[in-house]
Batch of 2 targets.
Target 1
Amino acid sequence: MSNTPLSSASQAIVFYGAGSMAEAIARGLIASSAAKSEQIAMFNRSNTERLKQLEANYGVVTAADAETQNELLSKAEIIVLAMKPKDAGAAIRRLTPLIQGNQLIVSIIAGLSIPTIQSLLGDKLPVARTMPNTSSTIGLGATGISFSEEVTPELRSRTLSIFEAVGMVSVIPEAQMEILTGVSGSGPAYVYYMMEAMIAAGIEGGLSPEQARELTVQTVLGAASMMKQTGEKPADLRKAITSPNGSTQAALEVLDQYRFTEAVKSAVHRSASRSQEMGAAIEAELA
Ligand SMILES: NC(=O)C1=CN([C@@H]2O[C@H](COP(=O)(O)OP(=O)(O)OC[C@H]3O[C@@H](n4cnc5c(N)ncnc54)[C@H](O)[C@@H]3O)[C@@H](O)[C@H]2O)C=CC1
Ligand SMILES: O=C(O)[C@@H]1CCC=N1
């Protein structure tokens, strides 16, 4: 792996975990010039092929051996916890002795609370708990962020600049992080699920797969952009499409028969409660 040193360890952002979310954020940081490639380091558990690919694509620093990884962690200005919740316990246990006390911990792990992170890594450690989404990959992410009280205004704006580089940011109290996960963290998956169904129905009705896909994509893009650009309420935009006794009304009646609103609301709340469960599982493992 790369022997290139980080340009300045005091400004380094180290991604502890080099999966899809870590890549999305690193890519956005570089593309928006919020950080230089040589300020970003990434490593994973064992996939050296992936690290080579990340190095080649983005020019970031990577490390395959434990010693270099530990050095990166202990020197980083910002450590981004970017592993799956099931791997967080072991990863945090390894990190605990390496923490220097003045580093910012940024977690993107669903469910993992600020008090849990601080109780393991240091009570006074500044922590930003975040929940991004996969649209960060193309700079259209939506990220929720909660800060511990130790985060200084400077670190706060540094964290905001990281996530603003990949989309919009909403700063929220930590108590709202689970419901935000249900809305925007998991949210893209519900939209894709609906798009899969629209495409399937279009094909059943005789459209080619390409036509069904293109029409569905443009429909969702157009609907989201309409809401954003006009600032109108979705209910009003919906009503404007729904002619009395027309085809849209007939379609919405079918959705109502299947209790569409209840289904979506229950899904959002279930994502939130599952996020809480995953956090509790990490806590139990580390207790
Ligand atoms: N995928 C999504 O839509 C979102 C994911 N998240 C959160 O982001 C986190 C990561 O998710 P993904 O990027 O999708 O996962 P992923 O599976 O693509 O990546 C996880 C990475 O962590 C590494 N890893 C695991 N244990 C490690 C260890 N002990 N030492 C070093 N590296 C280790 C893996 O090797 C891998 O590179 C999760 O905690 C998830 O809750 C947050 C928002 C959205
Ligand atoms: O499904 C998950 O657990 C993660 C958190 C939000 C999106 N993906």
Target 2
Amino acid sequence: MRGVVDEVPALEARRLTLAWSGDEAPVVRGVSLHVGVGESVCLVGRSGCGKTTILHALSGLTRPRAGSVLLHGRDVTGVPGDVSYMLQKDLLLPSKRIIDNVCLPLVLSGESAGEARAKARPLFGRFGLEGCEDSWPSELSGGMRQRAAFLRTYLMGNDVLLLDEPFSALDAITRAEMRSWYCDMARELRLATLTITHDVDEAVGMAQRIYVLTGDPRAGVPSRVSAEVRVGRPEGVSFEEFALSHEFLACKREVLEALGA
Ligand SMILES: Nc1ncnc2c1ncn2[C@@H]1O[C@H](COP(=O)(O)OP(=O)(O)OP(=O)(O)O)[C@@H](O)[C@H]1O
């Protein structure tokens, strides 16, 4: 079934086979997935099964051995730059104020610092960073720094975001708040998000659909998508409330079973 909002997915992978070198067995074989406009999807799998390898191919950093990547129906296989990719660490530059950190992608793409700041400033409120424009990264909490990293990623101007364990460096309470904030913000801004995580609770908490990746590339068994689980968190139900529901537990069980846990 297609994404919840639009017929043509924002991001689609068709039968990707990926390997790090020509003579090695593939890390993943025949992986197909899609993320609809405004949809939040998680990819879960054990450590080493190939999640990051898939994100690299989706972002165009590497070329697949076989298969293709489409953005809004356009073939972008092996072409970087059209998808934003955010890593676990916020990677803010300590010597730049927050406003200049978040403006970096705009400045690097040729805008003047003044133009970039004018574009970024109105977004500080929406990203929960009001009043932090002139702070240094070291003055912000982990959650605030992560919000700044999201704003910087958003300012790259892409509507498809790939997130690699985005909340793993945060404490449990901040992580829960950030998940909730991110999902509201992404829905409002119609961002398509693919998040990779080991954390099944996190996946069930933030995704509308979850792909489960299984295999053991280190033992020569390429990973594949072994299940697609639909998460039915009703509109208006908070994460905390949903986490106590039967639906949450049923989804979690389905994912864990598919992982073989
Ligand atoms: N740059 C690389 N060159 C060669 N092999 C790599 C490279 N990066 C990863 N691999 C191998 O590819 C396989 C999949 O790694 P990958 O990092 O994609 O897994 P992962 O599911 O993201 O793991 P984790 O959850 O621990 O981050 C592993 O066997 C890993 O050793």
